[in-house]
Amino acid sequence: MNKAKDRKNALDTLFSGGGMAGMVADATAPRPRLSSGAIGAAEINLIKDERDKLREELKTLNTQMATSDNVVELNTEQVQPSFVADRMEVAFDPAFEALKESIAETGQQVPILVRPAPDEDGIYQIAYGHRRWKACRALGKPVRGVIKPLSDEELLVAQGQENHERKDLSFIETCLFVFRLAQDYPQTLIVKAIGKDKSLVSKLRKLAATMPEEFLRVIGPAPKIGRPRWEEMASFFHDGALAKNHAKALSSLFALDSFNELHSDERFGEVLQVLQETPAELETTSDADSGEIAVSAHTRKARYSEWLGNKHVLVKHTGKATVFSVDSKTQSEFSAFLLKELPALISKFEDTKGEDA
Questions:
Q1: Which residue, 206, 222, 238, sits at the end of a domain?
Q2: Residue 190 maps to a domain
């Protein structure tokens, strides 16, 4: 059985029967919580003041950490991630590759923050700096960090504040982080951790609960996709599940190798388009037809999709245009090089056309 078919069978299992709905039911099942307490209108200013204070403390800590004598080198095998995940893992992350290259060339400039792991001697748990830790681990280098005793709540607030000060998390990653925190911690802590008000925290939690996490992981963090489009995606789910035709069409889409080669933002666009173009009602079209809609929508929109170089340029042929994409953030030097060389390439092409004439 080939790779695509294996993946399709696994995804059919995910979408069939109680698979998707079951995952949501498991994820949203009541769990023991700390007492939350309501946040009254009179307390909003106090929360904002405390948030601002935390931000200032975080900035001060980061400044001190960069040159502090308390910075130590830690074996990456003795460091473990936070007990609440805040990021989605992706197969290829250009920003992470750029960070790894930077650390390889100039060293780790900003230490991570860790605490001694509860009940594990000699092990440290990350409050923030997960990507720096992973980069050092991949490079076989020790990671520079500051060790600070932190309670669970203090660790989560530091983790959330750092991520949102640096704007490192995408919208859907923030939703998932809020959803995970809400299983065990009060809303007051989540408000402090992400620096958002009570109303928005509630909306983020509900949106994450609408769609199964496994489904979200197939799409990935989608850093350029904001709240309105995620809300449109969520509108196709009812009681945590998709209509049978929608589930079948997405299973066919997810089984395509070309789909998995796309960036996360592009995968989001493909999925939303398939949901929009596939009739939800079973009697409207056959199961086979719904799968064909997924494949045809994908191939119509991106008939050819390939990388050139070491993922320097993504080339997409849509039938109407050929699009060359360069990530100007992670490939800024290459982008500038292309812009400089393009006039000469165009001139060379024009000369070739003149010779043909």
A1: 222
A2: yes
- My answer on whether 176 and 317 are in the same domain is no
pTM of the shown model: 0.57
Identify whether 106 is part of a domain.
yes
Q: How many helices (H) and strands (E) does the chain have?
A: 16, 8
Looking at the chain, which runs of residues are DSSP E strands?
Answer: 71-74, 79-80, 112-116, 124-128, 143-147, 304-308, 313-317, 322-325
Sequential pLDDT tens for the chain (357 residues): 455 555 555 455 545 444 444 433 343 344 344 334 444 444 455 555 555 555 565 555 555 554 455 889 999 999 999 888 877 877 667 778 888 899 999 999 889 999 999 888 899 999 988 889 999 999 999 999 999 999 988 998 888 887 666 556 889 999 998 998 888 888 888 888 888 888 999 999 999 999 998 899 899 999 899 999 999 999 999 988 999 889 988 988 898 888 888 888 999 999 999 999 888 764 444 455 555 555 555 544 444 456 677 667 777 655 566 777 777 777 788 888 888 888 888 888 887 766 555
325/202 same-domain check: no
In terms of residue numbers, what domain contains 348?
A: 306-356
Exposed / middle / buried, residue 236 (Cβ in 10 Å: 0-12, 13-18, 19+): buried
196 with 324, same domain: the answer is no
State which of 222, 238, 271 marks the end of a domain.
222
Q: Report yes or no on 235 lying in a domain.
A: no
Within 8 A by CB and 6+ apart from 21, the residues are 239, 240, 241
CA 276 to chain centre: 23
Distance of CA 327 to the CA centre of its chain: 17
User: Which value, in Å, is the radius of gyration of the alpha carbons in the chain?
Assistant: 24
Is the Cβ–Cβ distance between 67 and 144 less than 8 Å? no
